[in-house]
Amino acid sequence: MSRNVTFLALSSSFRSLETSLHSSVTQLPSGTSNPRWLTLPLASPSTTLLENSSYKLKTQKLSNKIFSNIRPDAFQLVGHPFGKKLFGDHSLIFMFGEDHKSVRRQVAPNFTRQPLSAYSSLQQIVILRHLRQWEECFSSGSRPVSMRQLIRELNLETSQTVFVGPYLNEEVKNTIRTDYNVFNPGTMALPIDLPGFTFGEARRAVSRLVNTMAVCVVKSKAKMAAGENPTCLVDFWTHSIIGENPPPPHSKDEEISCVLVDFLFASQDASTSSLLWAVVLLESEPEVLRRVREEVARVWSPESNELITADQLAEMKYTRAVAREVLRYRPPASMVPHVAVCDFRLTESYTIPKGTIVFPSLFDASFQGFTEPDRFDPDRFNETRQEDQVFKRNFLTFGIGSHQCVGQRYSMNHLVLFIAMFSSMFDFKRVRSDGCDEIVHCPTMSPKDGCTVFLSSRVVTSP
């Protein structure tokens, strides 16, 4: 779950910007010598909409420079051209300076060892429940199924359960699902805030989601004040602040609920992308799949009626390398839009003008520096090669610096657990068609066909 990835559920305006950036490279600014650095200001409807010049930075060095200078006198995240209106004033996405530091200090402890262990059990219960449903519905292998919607539903329930699970009944879960499905298209719509228009309906859906989460926060605070043990993310959060007097900044019910909605958005769309690409890449790399299955089988079996323990998860080093390579090879989002707050000297020969929209490219950075970067190669992250350390400034999926993803360990665990369980429980064969592997944004990066596969069960029973 990534602060950066949250910002990257890009609007259709930003996606058309990206398309134009790739297709309309012209004369570079005076004094700029390397055409790989950036593509030029656009003359397109998107430029008119954003009322600013726009640049895409294609080298990891320049992308890192932007990420390292997110501050009031340099760059701020844009995330979405009308995002603050959509997400609200208390959204972590649009916090900077001391406000951001204050919330991050409250949030960070919720992604340490003890909470992550509790989340892992909840994640596995939800993953296994969905995998069993897939077994019942699709494992005969008689008809193909598009994985995107299945994985999307799995992720939405996982997020609900981990974040606020004890405080939701089925009716509220369905309400969240409905509101989320209304809200999501609003990230790709023009900002017409009227009834019947996608953006307006999305903004009202966000308000309802915030109100729903605020009720959960109230219940959690009461439960923690009564001395009960935390069982989900909001419990760990409220448990850490319940005794403070005065309460820390940004810890009112609505303020916490807004951040929970940010988390819901980030974990939902980013994880859907990652899990989809994991299936695509495992199916296309039989040797990688074989090694994953062998490693998992040494420590866990779906027929054991047991969940994967923290120690067993730690033993799955190759599976974790596969997960990391999935994120490198197909990061959930391709770019992170920022705006220059003032003139910023990007290089010795070029200054970014104030108000310019800048797009550091996670995707391009992922294919620079690494050994044979166009090859899907999980072994690059083994203890011998350690390319995650050698080229760590090229691996930007979770961001860098003070604004890097606070939930990256949670996100990584989710991907590893899914890979381990899915590959152990299913054989799967991709239905290939023209352009099926083309990248589309909906809103994060996905294969064009939604990853259509035939599924067949590999096990008799599962826990």
Automatic annotation (TrEMBL):
Membrane topology, record value: Single-pass membrane protein
Main localization, broad class: membrane
Residues where heme binds: 405
NADP keyword on record: yes
EC nos: 1.14.19.41
Cofactor(s) required for function per UniProt: heme
One Gene Ontology term, aspect cellular component: membrane
Reaction catalysed by this enzyme: 5-dehydroepisterol + NADPH + O2 + H(+) = ergosta-5,7,22,24(28)-tetraen-3beta-ol + NADP(+) + 2 H2O
Enzyme class: oxidoreductase
Family stated for the protein in its record: Belongs to the cytochrome P450 family.
Protein name: sterol 22-desaturase
Source organism of this protein record: Arabidopsis arenosa (Sand rock-cress)
